[in-house]
Every structure is written in C-alpha cells, then in structure tokens.
Specification:
The chain has helices spanning 46-57, 78-91, 104-108, 112-120, 135-140, 147-159, 178-192, 209-215, 224-236, 264-283; strands at residues 17-20, 22-23, 42-43, 65-69, 97-102, 123-131, 163-170, 196-201, 243-246, 257-260. It has one domain (14-283): Alpha-Beta Barrel (TIM Barrel). Helix 1 packs parallel to helix 2 (78-91) and helix 7 runs parallel beside helix 9. Strand 4, helix 2 and strand 5 form a beta-alpha-beta unit. The strands form two sheets. Strands 1-4-5-6-7-8-9-10 form an eight-stranded mixed beta sheet. Strands 2-3 form a two-stranded antiparallel sheet. It is of the alpha/beta class.
Length: 284
C-alpha cells in the first residue's frame, strides 16, 4: 500500500484499511488546518488503486472496513468513485462498510440518487467537519460554506441512507465568541441531527493562518475552563433524538461519551464536576 504524506483518519476507523483514494483536500483553505498544506489535490487513478488492492489482498484478504483518504475523497467525481467502490467489493468479499471524509460542497455536488448509488456499493458513513454553528466563526476560519448549505448536505446524506458523523471544535471562536459559538453549535447539532458528533479542542498549529492571527493578537483560544464551559453549553443546547456524542479526542481535556438524550444529564454532571474541581484546585 502506497501513501503520500501524512495520513489522517477518524478515531472510529482505527481498524479499517486506509486507502488513499485521493491526495490532499479539495478545499484546503481552513485557517486552523495545516494537515494538507503540502499536498495538491488530485484523484488517484483506478490503476494505482488496483495495484494497491492487489498488494493488500496478499496479506489482508479478510478486510471488513475501508476508509478512503485523504481529506475529502467524496470530492472524487462519480464516474471515478463508482469504479473504485466496485473494485473494493470485488477485492474484499467480506467488506461491510466504507467510510469517507467529505465537506459540505462535495456532498452537495452529488445528487441523492448518486449518493444512494454509492451507498449501494458500500459507502456507509460520511465524516463531515461542521466545526461551528456560528456563521461568523465559519466565515472567519474560511470554511467556505453556510449553515443552510451544511444542513442541506446533512439531509442529503440521511436521504441516501448513510450514517453522518460530524466534528465540532471547542474554542475555534476564540474567547471573543466563546459562548455564542457553543450555544449556536449545540443548536445546529439539534437542527441537523447527525448520528455521531465528536468535539475536538482547538489546537493552534504553527504555520497556519490561525497561528498568524494568534501571533498578531487577533485570536485568543479559551483556557481549560473556557473549553470545558463550551462543552457544557454545547451539550445543554443539543436536543437530539438519537446521537452518540463524544469528546474523547486527544486534544480534549476531558473525555466523555454517551448517547443523547438518554445520557445527556450524566455527561453534563461529569463536565460540571470537573469544572468544580478545577476551580477548587486553582483557588486552593
């Protein structure tokens, strides 16, 4: 299996075969992200994919899950993505599910019928970076989409019968918009009703535009308690019918996970307890 540059995948795809179907990210302009800055987006040829899969079958023939990298493999044109998924099905008879990163625009470029075709070929889960429910924040981080567009994309994924897993970023609004970001993000999760939601904490990566903003004094990330407060507020404003919520990413100061609405109060008590202990430690 050949890989170009660093490879990223969701935590839930830890046991999946990672197939680099595309190189880089089709958007690649978010101010906080430096993951794909050294790559120019391109789609790998079917011949390259075939060669990698032939090699993989020689030592891993019982693959059950595959994740298509890089940052936005759903941007691959339908006429190229369909043969890739067909080849995966032919290569791995025990294949149960294929996952993929996507952004709002790459989802909207595909019709429900096209997404249903991909679903029939095994594409079962889409990972979407929502980041914030505050349009001002989205504009500042150059997300390149609107909340209405993202809501439309979420509905399209549901209509295709796929699972939707989204990520949001604690602290991405800075100290200035901390509470607004948290409240509106919780409300937006309520609006789109994803199957899974993961909260990460903002990490200012050297070399990114966000790092330049921080150096210039235009961005200040909340401290530990500020991030925990955002997590608490976000949860309080999220009303879900069936959502698995987690903050167990390595960037977070508190790892919690559970089903909403059943375990919502339990998760909130955990956050409140840690915040209270944090205040005690600081004051004491």
């Amino acid at each position: 299996m050949r890989y170009q540059g660093m490879i990223y995948r969701p935590p839930s795809e830890a046991e999946s075969l990672i197939l680099q179907a595309s190189i880089g990210c089709s958007h690649n302009r978010c101010t906080f992200c430096g993951s794909f800055k050294q790559k120019t987006f391109r789609v790998r040829s079917l011949q390259e994919i075939r060669e990698d899969l032939e090699e993989t079958r020689s030592y891993a023939g019982h693959v059950r899950r595959v994740f298509l990298a890089d940052g936005d493999a759903l941007a691959i044109p339908q006429g190229e993505l369909v043969p890739m998924l067909e080849l995966l099905g032919e290569s791995f008879p025990h294949l149960e599910r294929v996952g993929v990163y996507a952004n709002t625009q790459s989802i909207l470029r595909k019709s429900v019928a096209e997404l249903q075709q991909l679903r029939a070929l095994g594409l079962g889960i889409v990972y979407l970076g929502v980041e914030s429910g505050d349009q001002t924040v989205l504009d500042r981080i150059c997300k390149g989409t609107t909340l209405d567009e993202t809501a439309q994309a979420a509905e399209r994924i549901r209509a295709a019968g796929m699972l939707l897993s989204v990520t949001v970023i604690l602290g991405i609004g800075g100290v200035e918009r901390s509470r607004i970001h948290a409240e509106r993000t919780g409300r937006f999760l309520t609006r789109i009703q994803p199957d899974y939601a993961g909260a990460l904490s903002v990490m200012v990566e050297p070399g990114t535009l966000l790092a330049e903003e921080e150096s210039a004094g235009r961005f200040q990330a909340p401290g530990v308690d500020g991030l925990l407060e955002e997590l608490q507020i976000m949860l309080e404003h999220t009303e879900a019918t069936r959502l698995f919520f987690a903050s167990n990413h390595a960037s977070n100061y508190l790892a919690i996970k559970g089903w909403l609405p059943e375990q919502k109060q339990e998760l909130l008590r955990a956050v409140e307890y840690v915040r209270a202990r944090l205040h005690h430690w600081v004051i004491g």
